[in-house]
Amino acid sequence: MSWGWPNYDGKKVLDLGAGDCEMARYFRDRGADFVVAVDDNSKKYSEMKLHPDQIKWIFPIMMVIDSPGIIEKLIDDWKPDIVKSDIDGNERFFYGVDFYVLQKVSEYIIKCHTKEVLSELIGYFDDGGFEVENLDDKYLVHFKKKDVA
Question: What pTM was estimated for this model as a whole?
Fold first, then answer.
């Protein structure tokens, strides 16, 4: 998979499905200034909080992503430059996030877990003013805001 498509240098990343923060460290190693790491697993959340060296640049949150409203609130609260999502099927909740809120973020990188969800999200993000920048054969898609001329 190619989580490395976006340029993370100097960016704030909202990491949905953060797990044990391996990806947060990956983003930091590629220049991200700050990562909001969200996961719904209490064990993984506890593991995230065990690394005091990360506290200055990572903010762990334990939360279930179970509606478009939760995604909207996280975007509004944290104002990320990039949203990364690998939330085991709940990526379908991006379908329904208000276009105004989607537009607050310049790039999304989303791991879709079915071809059908991938297809729906491509159409939805296109309607919301985004284009597919990159796509791999494992249903990982990178959306970027369309240039407005």
Answer: 0.92
